[in-house]
Structure formats: C-alpha cells, structure tokens
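The records we work with from here on pair a chain with its fold. Each token is a code from a learned vocabulary of local backbone shapes. A record is reproduced here so that you can trace the correspondence yourselves:

_____
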Amino acid sequence: RDCARQWFLGDSILAWLPLPGQRMAMVWSTTPEHAQALLAMDAPQLCAAVALAGGLSPDSLQLLTAAAAHPLQFQSAASMTGPRLLLLGDAAHVVHPLAGQGVNLGLRDVRTLRDALMLSKQKTGDALDGAQLARWARTRYSENTVAALAFENINRVFSNDNMALSLLRGRVLGLGDRIGPIKNAMARYAAGL
C-alpha cells in the first residue's frame, strides 16, 4: 500500500519497504541463528514466515528473488575525500538498516556537499577548494557517526524483551508523540530534512 512498515519483534526487527507494482523489499534484522534458519527454508516456508511475522495470512506473499544474508555492522570510510575522489552515501558509511535511514544520510551528504561547493565557489572562486571539501567531510563524518551510533542504540532498545526497558521506551515514545515540536523535529530528521 505504498507504506513502509516495521515490526520490533523482541529479538529482531522486520521491515517491509514498498516498491512499484505491488512488490516490496524485506529486511529482517535478526540473530545469526534465526537468519540461518530463515535461509534454510524453501520459498513457500520463507514467505509464510515473513507474512505471519507481519500479520498476514501465510499464503499472501510470493518470493521474487533469492534470500540473502549480510552481517550488520557499522562501517565508515577512514576519509570521505581523496585526490579526485569524494565518497557519499553507502560508499562512505554503512549503518543499521533501521527505518531505512541510510538513504537519508546519503541524501544529507549530497545536499550538504552541494551547499559546500556553492559556498566554496563564493569564498574562493573554486568550487573544489580542498579546505572547504575537508570541512564538509569532517562535518558529515561526525554527523554520520553520531547517527550510526543512534541507530545501533535504538536497535538495542527495541530488540530486547526486558520489561522495564519496554515500559520506558513506550512512555518515551508516547511522550514524544504528544509533544508536537519534538514529534515534528523527529519526523523532519527521519525524512532527511
């Protein structure tokens, strides 16, 4: 229905990401053991498991491409710039796929690079001034690292079944939902604005 959906299932996070033509991409961030069990399933079994986890009937999904697993770990290039080189988006940083925020970090890389190039052109007459590009890279590296750590910690908070933590996160999310400026700021950040 052209809507991304995400479930926090205790020890895992299941995300459905809409694609054109009644299709979706699925990401199930889970334990290595559960990932291996999912990969060992045949197509109908895997589809049933994914459908049931998302609240659909077991026969409602059809597999279009083979399942694959990739270890989740934060990765960041040591430098986003080099001689005749700029790294942006997933080429510069890999983050937990929580809520699809990796693409938004990449979009922020591009938007802030555009601004840095324009500012560099105004200040020095050279859009590709090395000092300006280095400043851009330091800023983005810092912001991307903070975001990656936040995604990792959000994953830790939501991917466990500790009762006290569950109550606390419910209260914090409820409070954030009721305070308009906080809710709007979180929505803008999540949207990459």
Remarks:
- Residues 63 and 175 are 39 Å apart (CA to CA).
- The mean pLDDT is 84.
- The helical segments are 32-40, 43-53, 101-124, 130-158, 163-178, 180-190.
